[in-house]
Structures
1.
Amino acid sequence: MTAQTAPAPAPPDPGPQRPRRTAVRSDRARAERRLGWYLAGPAFVVMLAVTAYPILQAFYESLFSFRLTAPEDRKFVGLENYAVVLTDWVFWRALLVTVLITVITVVVELVLGFALALVMHRAARQLRGLLRTAILVPYGIITVVSAFAWFYAFDINSGFINQWFDWVPGISPDLNWFAGTGTSLFVIIASEIWKTTPFISLLLLAGLAQVPGDLEEAARVDGATGWQVLQRVVLPNMKAAIMVAVLFRALDAFRIFDNVFIMTNGAYNTEVLSLLAYKTSIVRLEIGLGSAISVLLFLCVILICFVAVKLFKVDLASSRGEKS
Amino acid sequence: MSALTARQRIGWGVITVLVLVYALFPVASIVATSFKLPSQLNTGTFLPETWSGTNYESILAPSGAAQELFLSALRNSVGISLIATAIAVVLATLAAYAIARLDFPGKKLILTTALAVSIFPVISIVTPLFNLWRAIGLYDTWPGLIIPYLSLTLPISIWTLAAFFRQIPWELEQAAQVDGATTWQAFRKAIVPLAAPGVFTTALIAFFIAWNDFVYGISLTSTSAARPVPAALAFFTGASQFESPTGAISAAAVVVTVPVVILVLLFQRQIVAGLTQGAVKG
Amino acid sequence: MLVACALALPLAACSSSGSDVPVLTWYTNPDNGGQAEIAKTCTAAAEGRYRIVTSGLPTQAAAQREQLARRLAAHDSSLDIISLDPPFIPELATFLAPVPEDVAAVVSKDVTKSALQGASWEGALVTAPFWANTQLLWYRKSVAEAAGLDMTQPVTWDQVIEAAASQDKLLGVQGIKAESLTVWVNALVASAGGAIVENPEAPQDEITIGLDSDAGRAAATILQSISQTGVGGPGLPTEDENASLTVFQGDSGSFMVNWPFVWAATQASVEDGTIDQSVLDDMGWALYPAVSADRPVAPPYGGINLGVGKYSKHVDLAYEAVECIVAPENQAQYFVSNGNPPASSVAFDDPAVLEEFPMAPVIRDSLELAVPRPQTRYYNEVSSGLQETWHPISSVNPDTTPQYSTEFITAVLQGKRLL
């Protein structure tokens, strides 16, 4: 069925790996097309079913004023919920905090992740396994566990950080990390960075592996310093990997929820978009208003994604060496 | 490689220590907390003054206050994550094979959809799912979590596997066929050994992602029938409702971290390979 | 099969193995296992008419409500007996089966005033009072003495703050952005003769917030003076009940408002050896402080009442079980084993209670004076709105906070603002 609705002329192959004999064997091509959809169709349908359907439902719900504990008062209000959300600074504050967390984590993780990638790339064989294992531990740990670990370490009552670091200006046994926007965000971001840097560093490691070794060698022979090699040879050749890493992490960071939920639950202006949506629809049970926030959050992600995918495509081409 | 100078050796030693501290310190911190007596949680020291197994007893011993809560959550987490992983890997293997091997319109659409789904804000679909689930009776059940978990595990599986499969030298299959093997034999002898590591790695990565979920877990369950571990941590309690369950949470956190560390220890090479191939070639 | 069972086996064995015994699910808030214990007692007493199994609710009161509301709205028939935090009773009352008159008469007998109030909505009993909590003023005898404060007389907040400040000690209060902040502000406003919500039974958009009043300003003034004198300490903005206790037990402990769990918790710490016996000996208790000497004190009221789900398949049996659960002797037993005070005043006369909790008479007096938090269907909005505008305490200003929070909560209730 899907094969019938698919456009008849095959588009120019977007990602050819193997040389294709462009012999006009239309029946074989048709069979291949059908098989392709038979194989990929179920995954495609499941993906749509678990996301597209709910988001459409959310859009529908967002047009009503509906509180779960007062089902009899449900009424159609059009776009009023959106007006309420968009004219409230609480929403804009949450958006700002989310963007702030996203930008800081991505930038720090890019630098830190690159350092870790270099370490894994350059390490001698006998060290490599140990280093990789260590770096992968945060990757496998549950975010909620990471949030608790960082929270307990910094907490004014149960924590030890204040005792350990009281020689640092600004840190004293009386510093209450979770009683200020800046300090709370610091711990939230630290936990987020700790947990997700391994992911970004693995993506960068893959990029490093693609940098032609002979180019590096040649630059060294020409007398370039390590920094120059990095700047002129390594980084340009890793552009694609870097873009991919940034895109994935930025979109992931934009959804941040667990760390904030555990550590501050939004106190001290640390509320992020996901938490606002959660609080409105799950805690307050204001399904209509909450759905409106959910839809807006979705639109934000689409927007970022749209911009990013444009960049992403350009770089994919260059990573295949179609353009230097 | 072996000819490291003394300076390089020291350099690498320092780097290794730094990386180990970075990666393991928060883990060590929660392990230390988990061995503290409930009344010694606020001493402000890193290590417990007296090492105590009280917290582990409370979550593991038959008489423990949180034992039932924790063990049922552990069972749910393991079961639900495994099933969600298995379904995702099967569907993704078929899809990725098609994407890597066959020429059909819509490849890009599928990959783009997978990307879109993988960055989908989970919170956006929780409310409608909750409404739907309670209407059709999936609320607080295993399938009620397995289905949304597919939105987490399926996209990354497709991307990772598609990248893996693209690197497989499919000519081998043709070569085997030329040598007289049937299509199936060619596939089984030449391709399966090459593809299996990729499938396994993908499964590991997908499992980690399902294991990590929190939002679905707290929103779509309400009893120990389906509540997974991350959500269950919020249900722990101290000796009274006003006392912090810090110790029990830490102990539970350590228990669920152990399998992760073991998997990482055993399969670090495969995980690294899986994650690095998936992204760059994608 | 039933006949064979009745003939061949003692009834108790039948009830545990037979599938025909109706199972009542009791959703319990977290405790030290006391509710599960009572469930067993009552299952045994029912002699096979029903069997009670317990199922846990989340730790946080707000999370309990969230979960119950979702399940009740989904017409979940497994919710037979529910342990309910009083502020959320009005909102969930529409999902509860009405209390039969005879049951109401039994379960409300001898119940302390605040507990009875907390179990009712729109003038009728909608839940059975089970246990009732109230905060006391706990003090270090040495500090009170050094400050020259006579603790045999009722004290005011100003006196307590001054006494703590004069000794350079910290006051244990709950300044965290959580339900405990509403508990505190409600007690202050009520003691100053006001009410956070003036017409709690009104529909959502007609609710009038009473914070922009002399009582609201009096409450704000006390918070401001705690913050300005510094007696809250650095932990104040994240200080919950547990953290207050930690401060109180420490070297800078002086006075603390808190629930009675602190007594059992301190005893446990002494047993573990982390706290010196002298701290326990130094601990005194009194009625909650008043806002001013010429007005009655209005201590916080909390606790748990039992509701029966409207969609339960065994409403009658569930009420029968509720009657058993809230029997005064079970309440007394629960107090002794779990430290949660009874709603029934006669349960306080139990000798075991007096032995375990020497402050029991003060708790009973406090429960007669205690004032519940606003009983409105929109309690969550009121409480969250209040926390949003009164936290952190260092930002509270009597000239602006009461007025701003009134406007904010009103706008939220009218659907014009997000929370």
Note: Residues 2-133+301-369 of chain C form a domain with the D-Maltodextrin-Binding Protein; domain 2 fold (CATH 3.40.190.10).
2.
Amino acid sequence: MEITISRMLRVGVSVAALVVLLGEILYLWQAHGVKSDYGYFHGVPTPVDHIGLILEGIRHLDSRSIIRLGILLLIATPIVRVAFCLYSFGMQKDKLYIPISGTVLAVLLYSLLHR
Amino acid sequence: MGLVEFTFAVLLTSALAGLLGALTGLGGGVVIVPVLALLFHVDLRYAVGASLISVIATSSGAAVSYVREGFSNVRIGMFLEVATTLGAVGGAYLAARISTRAIGIIFGVTLLYSAWSSFRNNKDVETHPPNALAEKLKLTGDYPVGGARRTYRAQNVPAGFGIMAIAGLLSGLLGIGSGAVKVLAMDGAMKLPFKVSTTTSNFMIGVTAAASAGVYLRRGYIAPGLAAPVMLGVLAGSVAGARLLVRIRVPILRVIFAVVIVALGVEMIYSGATGRL
């Protein structure tokens, strides 16, 4: 179980970092040196529940959408880890840790997906 | 500053924060938020959002070796993650309710606590008396010492759980891993061995941060153009730091880093109190 977890984390982080890096290089290319003003907060929400919107952006090679995809992959990594623990506790028939890891997974999914 | 200069300045600063964070065990998040806010004049909400993403990356990256070496306790981590994730969702909601000035002050106090805690001597207790609740929840384990494996058993489970909820709240509110508070819960309250506490804490940080990330994304706290260099920089720095840590012992670095953190903490409290955040 431990070995699979560590392998899973490594792959998740590496893939996410690579996607973010690609997006960032493209971003520097596309923005033509114009920097967003981060001193003033004008939050543009990431459409978490509209993965289609992000994929649509990627089809048009929109760098921000690529970075967002990388960030979503990164967030998914620990969530998949918890899901895997739930599965292994299920295999071990651990009556106590099935509901415990189930609760953690439910909180994570609720926070990510509810409106 | 143009975009390219800004991006590289943020990338280098983040790499340095990640390097020092890994070498001293305090994590990069506690430094990167005040540096972005005070030096780069980034809005606190963007700084917190970018930091949270870097925290997920470094936690998941660093957890790899610890889990494999058998120090992290997956069951204890999972049990306490119930507290930290609920706390983190609460903290992320709270972040929108209270002013950036108040967040700045809370951040400053957390920085001062982190600096202080890095100098606590971490002596493990020798005996772990039987504990009914820990037994019932299977909060026991063993870890490698020399060639043998030493067993341990959690104490004060409700107190540890409560402190973990606070750690989660701070993580969601400030976009940091709050490793110092997590270690306080496990090492201080639950009397777990120090090495088990720090590594399990690190393992939990990613899950805790992921719990508030959804709320941050929906609020627009995570600006891609800023989060990307922060994440890549902190990740690269902390990977390099973890490699170096095997070879060098750096008490002097710990002192320097603590001084930096105290200075940033005081400056955050001052900026928050005078309304410059």
Note: The mean pLDDT of chain B is 87.
